[in-house]
Amino acid sequence: MANGIGRCLREWGINKIFTVTVDNASSNDVTVKELSKQLTKMGTNLMNGTHLHVRCMTHIMNLVVQDGLKKSSVSIERVRHAVRYVRQSPARLKRFQECFDAEQLNSKKTLCLDVPTRWNSTHLMLRRAVEFESAFSYYASSEIGLRHYLEHSYIDVGIPTGELLSSDWENVKRITKFLEIFYLLTLKISGSRYVTSHIYFLEICAVSVYLKQLIANEDIVLSEMAKNMKEKFDKYWGDPGKMNKIFFISCILDPRYKIESVGFALVKMFGVDTGATIQAEVTKYMTSLFSEYVKSSSKGVVLASSSDCSSLDTSTSGLSGSQASTQNIGLLESLMQDIKKYKSGSGGVDTRTELDKYLGEETKDDTKEFDILLW
């Protein structure tokens, strides 16, 4: 696969790759390592490819939520079976539509059945079913077929689905509200028409804090879901030392957040000591990365030193006007270089790098109108 990617890059005339985002298949680990070797041969592999491999946040989030739903409540199964029953024939759908009218539900929407392995489809199914709760109740009271189906269908071997109760609807409403947060987050970070890399880490931190709160929740259903999700979450984002530092750096390079916000988030996720250690490591890595860019973009122009100038023939009597002017400019530049060195040594010149200056500036206001690409 790496050879295929390399071939495409050469055909497209691309030889500089900062990161490669892939899902969590183990084969991708090998692919990125081989691709890193190819970039090294090209001489464009910054920091020896340390930050090249980026794991897809959306894919990880899908795995995290899916683990939360593995031991989903009986209520979800009952709603799923009820939706499946209604959708199994046109006659049932027509009868269900009549229940709409009886309950005065003014909606052109229809029921949707989920794909159990895709949690976002489960969320959409539950959200739609909640809208039609009264229609389901009316249908169940007038159609014995639904009650019979639920009583004789099974969630698992030996575990009957059972009747759809009002308590099930309450459970489903809470679960739907819970899943809505992750659904909207997935939509946000999956965007392709706007920048997303600078929000990844803060979003990850927000999820971590939220799951910790839910684990301590008195709601047993949500607490169990959160525990399962946190275990999967920690597999990928529980060890900051294994996280790609570009996650942190891209957030720091957002002028609304910078190092203070990232440092605060690190402490929230990993505690004071670990958070401070990771912040120091990120700052060090970012400085090294900046130096790499400075080195690669430098033109290597070295101005003549004052000692070199002493050996030059400063006479302009034998030169034309333009030649004399050019020589005088060179001498002036040399003098100005010496003056800058002198002022630098005496503290008269700001010797901070562009990165240091950026980090030292005040953060920008976080407004809805802010566009990082226009900043």
Automatic annotation (TrEMBL):
| InterPro entries referenced in this protein's UniProt entry, alphabetically | hAT-like_transposase_RNase-H, RNaseH-like_sf, ZnF_BED_domain_contain
**Residues passing through the membrane, by range:** none
Task: Spell out the protein name for this chain.
Answer: Zinc finger BED domain-containing protein RICESLEEPER 2-like
Gene name of the encoded protein: LOC107763768
Q: Among its keywords, does the record have Heme? A: no
- GO molecular function list: DNA binding
What keywords tag this UniProt record? DNA-binding
State the source organism's domain of life.
Eukaryota
Query: From which residue to which does any coiled coil extend?
Result: none
